[in-house]
């Protein structure tokens, strides 16, 4: 037995043995410390919980605010979508109306185009008739003129007062024709004819054409026919006496005005006509009426 914890009776006081508490006062303070620790722990947990609850409340408020804002945005977007749908329906209705109007206009255009084509065809036919009529009138005029000249020539020949054609000139239906030996340009050839009281040949009909074709002897000859050019383009052809061209015997593909400078016309060995530059040198045919 441990006797060190007892004091002797001689000290005049009773010694209390010491246990694990180290004395009664020490044992009384220990529950207080425990209670204090529990209290502190409880306060700390309460504080932590309060902070967490406060933060959770704040976050919940923010979430609720965001939810309200999202609901507001959804409401606005729904309103915008509704407006867009109305605009789309209105646009579709407008487009349908415009499409119907365009279809009607297209039909009107097609109808107008058909009428224009019909009118153009009628005008073309009328123009062809007029051209044919003018050509026939011109041929009739030339035939009448030739018959008149032939009649006058016959009268003059019967009178016996008509001179014969000069030597080397060929007679035909009251006119004399000279087929040149040298070559010259169109202008020089016309000067030679004028010096002989004649002009480059003017062909009035098919009979005269046949007479000339039979005397070419494989040569080319200038004729008294030139182009009428305006703004660089040939508009028509006229004889040297100013009479427009009516009778013609163009060769295949002629006149073609090659390089834009073929203003004069020559008689080919075949009897057909060809346009060519006036500065080219070739033979020529002069023509003049018999003098009576």
TrEMBL record:
InterPro entries: C-type_lectin-like, C-type_lectin-like/link_sf, C-type_lectin/snaclec_domain, C-type_lectin_CS, CD209-like_CTLD, CTDL_fold. Residues 109-136 form a coiled coil. Keywords: Coiled coil, Disulfide bond, Lectin, Membrane, Transmembrane, Transmembrane helix. It comes from the Eukaryota. PROSITE patterns: C_TYPE_LECTIN_1, C_TYPE_LECTIN_2. The chain crosses the membrane at residues 32-53. Residues 172-287 form the C-type lectin domain. This is C-type lectin domain family 4 member G-like. It comes from Galeopterus variegatus. The lineage of its organism: Eukaryota, Metazoa, Chordata, Craniata, Vertebrata.
């Amino acid at each position: 037995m441990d006797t060190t914890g007892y004091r002797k009776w001689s000290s005049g006081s009773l010694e209390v043995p010491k246990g694990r508490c180290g004395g009664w006062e020490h044992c009384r303070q220990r529950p207080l410390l425990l209670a204090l620790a529990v209290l502190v722990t409880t306060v700390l947990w309460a504080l932590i919980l309060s902070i967490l609850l406060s933060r959770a409340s704040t976050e919940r408020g923010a979430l609720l605010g965001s939810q309200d804002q999202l609901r507001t945005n959804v409401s606005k977007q729904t309103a915008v979508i509704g407006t867009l749908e109305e605009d789309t329906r209105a646009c579709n209705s407008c487009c349908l109306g415009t499409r119907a109007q365009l279809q009607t206009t297209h039909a009107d255009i097609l109808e107008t185009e058909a009428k224009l084509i019909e009118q153009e065809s009628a005008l073309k036919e009328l123009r062809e008739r007029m051209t044919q009529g003018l050509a026939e009138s011109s041929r009739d005029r030339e035939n009448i003129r030739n018959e008149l000249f032939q009649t006058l020539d016959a009268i003059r020949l019967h009178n016996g007062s008509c001179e014969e054609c000069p030597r080397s000139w060929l007679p035909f239906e009251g006119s004399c024709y000279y087929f040149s030996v040298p070559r010259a340009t169109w202008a020089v050839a016309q000067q030679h004819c004028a010096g002989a009281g004649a002009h480059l040949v003017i062909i009035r009909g098919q009979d005269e054409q046949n007479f000339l074709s039979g005397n070419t002897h494989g040569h080319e000859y200038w004729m008294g026919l030139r182009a009428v050019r305006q703004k660089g383009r040939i508009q028509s052809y006229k004889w040297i006496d100013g009479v427009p061209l009516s009778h013609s015997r163009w060769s295949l593909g002629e006149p073609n005005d090659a390089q834009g400078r073929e203003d004069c016309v020559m008689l080919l060995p075949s009897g057909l006509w060809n346009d060519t530059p006036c500065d080219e040198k070739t033979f020529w045919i002069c023509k003049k009426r018999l003098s009576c």
